[in-house]
Amino acid sequence: MPSEGQSVVLGPDEGRRYDMGAIQAVFKADGAETAGRFSVSEWWLDARHEGPGAHKHDDNDEIFYVIEGTASVLVGDIWHQKPKGSLFVIPRGMMHDFKNESEARMGLLNVYVGGPFEEAMPMIVDWYRDNPAAGLNEFGRRLSDCRNGKGGLSAALCFSVCRRSYLNDGGWLRSFEGAGCGWAPGLPNDGGWLRSFDGAVCGWAPP
Fold it and tell me: What does the radius of gyration of the chain's CA atoms come to, in whole angstroms?
């Protein structure tokens, strides 16, 4: 017989917290609590900050519900800016992202369907420790410098910044990293296969 999940009753401020700087996550139910069938979490984003970057899940559907503030959510190739009480249903295989363009903190309730998610959080927290979410103004400056080979940006930061914006340029992301040509599929939320090449600036490869 299939394993059964557990009942979960939590108050407003309860759950397992993960701090990623400008992004914070609170997991309400996951793993054994849901028998690995789905995950329920809150995602909070400070004012005027980028989110995780455009990505997709080939085997999982997602639901986002705005619980605080105004969220900017990418669904496919269209950005939607919606207030508290709005709902987004993201089918598996569809590109998506979120960010906070407002002047106040924003919160999303996320339901990740088709498997657990929290098990990936330690890796994601570690990644954000080295690649903090950029403020919107700072993100634009970093992206410009990265593309033009200015500002003395590190290879890792160039890779991170350009990775988050590839969808807006209509092609697969390339980052010139100084480490030779290779694939980097292991990054969290990588939005597809990312490529790194020699050099110090970012460029774009066709799909």
Answer: 17
The C-alpha atoms of residue 173 and residue 158 are separated, in whole angstroms, by 11
The residue whose two tokens read 């939005």 is 191
Stretches where the chain sits below pLDDT 50 are 1-2, 153, 164-207
143: CB partners within 8 A, 6+ apart: 161, 162, 165, 202
Exposure letters 144-158 (e unless 16+ CB within 10 A, then b): ebbbeeeeebebebb
Q: What is the pLDDT of residues 120-144, one digit of tens each?
A: 999 888 888 887 887 776 665 555 5
**Side-chain-side CA neighbours of residue 79 (13 Å):** 14
pLDDT of residue 148: 56
SS3 41: strand
Alpha carbon distance 179, 165 (integer Å): 21
Distance CA 110, CA 151 (A): 37
